[in-house]
Structure formats: C-alpha cells, structure tokens
Amino acid sequence: MPAGARPRPAVLLGSQLVFNVGFYAVVPFLATVMRDDLGLGALAIGVVLGARTFSQQGLFLLGGMLADRYGPRLLITAGCAVRVAGYLGLALAADLPGFLLGAILTGLGGALFSPALQSLVAAADLRARETRRPGRPSLFAALVLVGEVGAATGPLVGAALLGHGFATTALSAAGLFTAVGVALWCVIPASAVRAAASGAAVDAADSVAPLAADSDAPVARDPWAAVRDRRFLAYAALFAVDLLAYNQLYLGLPLELGRAGAGASAVGSAFLAVSLLTIALQWPVALLARRIGPARALALGFGTSATGFAAVALAAVVPPPAGSALAPVAVLLVCLTLAHMLVGPVTMELVPAFAAGRPTASYYGLLASCGGVAVLVGGSAVGALLDAAPALAWGILAALPVAAAVGLPRLLPRSPTAARAADAPPTSTPTRTPAGS
To answer: What would the pLDDT profile of 372-390 be if each residue is shown by its tens digit?
Structure first.
C-alpha cells in the first residue's frame, strides 16, 4: 500500500473514541428502557440484547471478508449508515418488534465497520512494530485507552440525555455516527488496504499474519481455514464464555442494580467504573499475563469471572446485610472487568499463531461469531432464569467460566510459532468489540 494511502493512527484512534461515545450513550440503557418504558420482562430483554450482539459478533467474519474485498473505506461508512438506521429505529420504536429491529441494525452496523477499522489498526501497528521499544504499548493499547475514554464519556452523556427521553439519546447518537461516517469517507483514501479478489494486493486483515508466518513453506490463502481448524474451533467455542460473561454487564448487571433499588444513574456510574478500571489496569494486567504465560492467564481470568458470578449467586440465596445490597454487584463488576482485560489480549495474541501464516480475518471472525452465538443462546436462557430462578442463573454463569479455565489451556497452539507468539507482550484487545462499538 503506498504511503499516501495509509490513514494516520490519530484518525483511527479518534474514530474509536467517537464510535464508543455514540455506542455507550445508548446501549447500556437499553435494558432499563425496555423494562421501564416498554414494560418488557427479562426474557424479552435478553432476546433483544442477544440479537444485537449476535448481529454484530455473528457477522464479524462477513464484515472482515467484505472489508478485504471492497476496502475499509466503503465498509466503515456503510457500517456507520446502518448503525444510524438502527438508532433511528430505536428512537421510533414503541413495541418489542420495533426495538428488536433497531437493536439488530445497530449490531449489523458494527459488524461492517469494526473489522475494517481493526484491519487498518493492525496494518499500522505492524508497520510500527520494528521501531517500537520493548515494553512500550502497541497501537492496540492506545486504541483501547482512547476507546475507554469514549466508553466512560458515553454513559454520562446518555444518562444526561435520558432525562429528555430515550428518543433524544438515540437521535443524538444517530447524528454523531452520521458525522463520523461522512468524515471518514473524506479522510480514508479509497485505495487504503484494498485487496483484489485474486489476493494480489495486501489487505490489512492479513497484516498480522507475519507473526506466525516464519515457516519456509508457503501457506495458501483460505478464508475458511479457521472453520476447518478443529483445534481453533474448539478454542473459539470455549472462549465464547468470555463474551457471554461480559455481556452480563448489559443484561444481568442493570437488572441486579434495579433489584437493589438503584436507578438509571447507577447504570451510568457502573459503566464509568468499568472504563476507569480498564484505563488504569489494562496495561499492568497485560504485563501480568505476559509474565505468567497464556495458559495460566486464561485459567486466572476465567476463574476471576467465575468468582464474580458466584458472589451474586450467593447473594441471591443469602441476602447481604442491610446497607450492603450493592456489594455483590460491585464484586461482579470488578471481576468481569478484570477477567475480560486478562483473557482478551492473550487470545488476540494467540490468533496469528493458530493461523500459522494464513490470513487471520477468518480466525478473528470465527472467534467473534462463536461469542455472538453464545450471547444469543445463553443470553436468552439466562434472561428467562433471571426472572424465575436468579440463583440458578448466576450459578450456571459461574460454572461456565470454570469449564473454560480448565479447557482452554489444553487447546493452545502447539507449533514453535505459537510458542514465540505466546511469549510476545500482550496487546490490548480492541476496546469492547464483543459488545462495543
């Protein structure tokens, strides 16, 4: 790709910031709006949130393939347009079908623009890797930090706008995404990281492949290689527990805050706490993961997630003392945030080792798609149980990370390339992509 066709890192980082402000001004309040304004139960809320996540995560592979084929400029602007349509739908929705359609469109928009933006970041990070001093954060680390600033700002903006009605919040987010879509169309060159169908050009999704491409034998391009890789397929299926667990910040956490007597402002404060924890601890946690290695990091991360769910399950059986009703929710929030910070970067670093020189877009896409399926199926089931048997719901959610903690270390890549990739300093996972922008 010619130098003139390379978007500046500042443009990519600024885009992530704006995307997250718009996203987190709306999505954290969907459960509250559906419960209070539409009178929906936990099952319906779980279906809507699961469908939104699945429409993004489940189609991540498709979005990556389209970005490889048509270029990130078109996919980013198209994704912004689809998300604008989703926010308009949410603003106008007066019943469950309308809200469901709007939520699905917001997720589909993310499926289009997120992999395209990530491919540009991966290409920029690869170019900078040779000159980066050891121990310095990667461009992905900068991406997660600016994204978390947006994630911290978004709920505060959303909480302020919610006083004027949810429609005002959704319309404001639609205007924001319209502006950023037009701006990126003007700023990103049409030739940026565009791959021809023949594969002659270099696409950004392939740009991280050299991490695992030091074999002498050429590796054929196969967009379905990830699906045929049984070891990675099993890994992706188990790792989907992370997205299902993290999604409880959007489903279970608001419901538990409501049960404890907290209002919509508490939801905004909770997401602010998540952002502050991530900003403060993402890099130290990533360094910890590098020191202890991927197997132990995965076990520790999912064990931490299980601890958070166990605390809420216990509180559902043995109510906490007066004045400490929010303590189990606080434990859950901290544990889920720490676990996600720990296991996400480790897995993002291992993916190129699984790919072993093949294009990585399908591997990242499959990882996200498995998470989307887990959220759709698991979120709906958990939503139903949270109404009928909350202790059982939280108990099941505690058991799933335990299974992941035991199984994932046994599925790590076994090649020498994998060992080298696993020893590399972890980068930060694209900020809350599973449920985020």
So the answer is: 888 878 888 888 888 888 8
All domains of the chain, ordered by start, with CATH? Answer: 8-196 (1.20.1250.20), 222-426 (1.20.1250.20)
pLDDT tens by residue, 22-69: 998 998 889 888 988 888 888 888 888 888 877 887 788 788 777 777
Burial of 97: CB neighbours in 10 Å, binned 0-12, 13-18, 19+? exposed
CB-based contact 278:341 (threshold 8 Å): yes
CA-based max dimension of the chain: 66
> Quick one: pLDDT band at residue 134, thresholds 50, 70, 90?
low
Query: DSSP secondary-structure letter at 352?
Result: H
Helices (H), 130-189: 139-162, 166-187
DSSP 109-129: HHHHHHHHHHHHHHHHHHHHH
How many of the other CB atoms lie within 10 Å of CB of 339?
Answer: 26
Q: How confident is the model at residue 102 (pLDDT cuts 50, 70, 90)?
A: very high
Burial of 293 (0-12, 13-18, 19+ CB in 10 A): middle
Q: For residue 263, how many other CB atoms are within 10 A of its CB?
A: 12
